[in-house]
Inverse folding.
C-alpha cells in the first residue's frame, strides 16, 4: 500500500542486543565404529564454523553481522529484567521515503547508514549525545538507474573493513570511502544500466577482495560476480553465470561431479 503525504523515513535507534547461543560439537576419537556426539544444548540447530562467527567485539561490520550471517549479537546489556525500560535514544532523518533494506553498521563508536537511491552514506557519532552526524558522502549515481530497477531503488547494505566503508550504488558502481574522514578512496564502474544492469546487493570483503554481483535478471541481463582489489578498486576477475568457459571462468581444476558420483554413473 502506498503512503500518502510527505513523510520522511526516520531511523529510531534503541540500544538492543540478542544473546548468541554457542555450542561446541566434540567428536569422539578416530574409530572404526560410529562417532558419538554430545547432545546439542538447545536442540538441533546450525553450528557455524568458529572462524565465520568469532567472539563478539561490540562492532557490526557487515549486514549479516559476520561471515556466518548469524545476525545475532552476543552482547548482554539487555536482559529480560531490564528490557521493559528501553527508551528512545535518538532519531535521524534520511529525508527519503524509499524502502530501507540496509542494516546500519556500528564500528568503534560510529554508526554508518547507507540509504536507498541516491545512496547517501552517513556517519553518526555514537559517543556524543544525540549521535550528531560526523560526515555525509554523496556518490551522485545516475538518475536514469531508477527507471531500470525492478523492485524499488533499495540498497542492501555496506561493509566495513580495514578502515574503509564499501558499498554499491544503483547505477552499477562500487565505492570505497575512508571511514574516518568520509573521503572517497576509489570508485569502480561495474554495471551498465543501458543493458538493464543495476546493483542493489551489499558487497562482501574477503582475503583482500571486494566481491560484487549484479541485478537485472528481470531485464534479461547476464548475471556476473566480480572481484575488486580492496586497496585500489581494480578488477581482479569477473565471472559470468552463462556463456563460454572463458567467460564463466571454468578452468582445468573444474570437475562437473565428484569421483564418487562418476563411479556410480559410469556403469
Amino acid at each position: 500500500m502506498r503512503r500518502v503525504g510527505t513523510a520522511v523515513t526516520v531511523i529510531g535507534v534503541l540500544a538492543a542486543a540478542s544473546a548468541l547461543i554457542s555450542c561446541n560439537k566434540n567428536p569422539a576419537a578416530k574409530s572404526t565404529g560410529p562417532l558419538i556426539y554430545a547432545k546439542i544444548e538447545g536442540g538441533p540447530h546450525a553450528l557455524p564454523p568458529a572462524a565465520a562467527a568469532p567472539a563478539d567485539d561490540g562492532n557490526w561490520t557487515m549486514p549479516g553481522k559476520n561471515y556466518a550471517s548469524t545476525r545475532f549479537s552476543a552482547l548482554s546489556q539487555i536482559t529480560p529484567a531490564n528490557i521493559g525500560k528501553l527508551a528512545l535514544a535518538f532519531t535521524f532523518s534520511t529525508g527519503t521515503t524509499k524502502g530501507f533494506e540496509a542494516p546500519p553498521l556500528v564500528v568503534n563508536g560510529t554508526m554508518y547508514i547507507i540509504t536507498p537511491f541516491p545512496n547517501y552514506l552517513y556517519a553518526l557519532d555514537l559517543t556524543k549525545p544525540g549521535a550528531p552526524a560526523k560526515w555525509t558522502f554523496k556518490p551522485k549515481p545516475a538518475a536514469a538507474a531508477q527507471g531500470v530497477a525492478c523492485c524499488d531503488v533499495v540498497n542492501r547494505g555496506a561493509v566495513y573493513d580495514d578502515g574503509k566503508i564499501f558499498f554499491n550504488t544503483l547505477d552499477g558502481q562500487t565505492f570505497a570511502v575512508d571511514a574516518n574522514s568520509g573521503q572517497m578512496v576509489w570508485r569502480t564502474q561495474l554495471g551498465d544500466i543501458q543493458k538493464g544492469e543495476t546493483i542493489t546487493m551489499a558487497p562482501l570483503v574477503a582475503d583482500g577482495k571486494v566481491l560484487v554481483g549484479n541485478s537485472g535478471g528481470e531485464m534479461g541481463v547476464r548475471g556476473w560476480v566480480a572481484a575488486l582489489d580492496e586497496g585500489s578498486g581494480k578488477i581482479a576477475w569477473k565471472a559470468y553465470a552463462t556463456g563460454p568457459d572463458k567467460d564463466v571462468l571454468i578452468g582445468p581444476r573444474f570437475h562437473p561431479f565428484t569421483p564418487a558420483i562418476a563411479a556410480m554413473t559410469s556403469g
The longest strand covers residues 173-178. The first helix runs from residue 245 to 248.
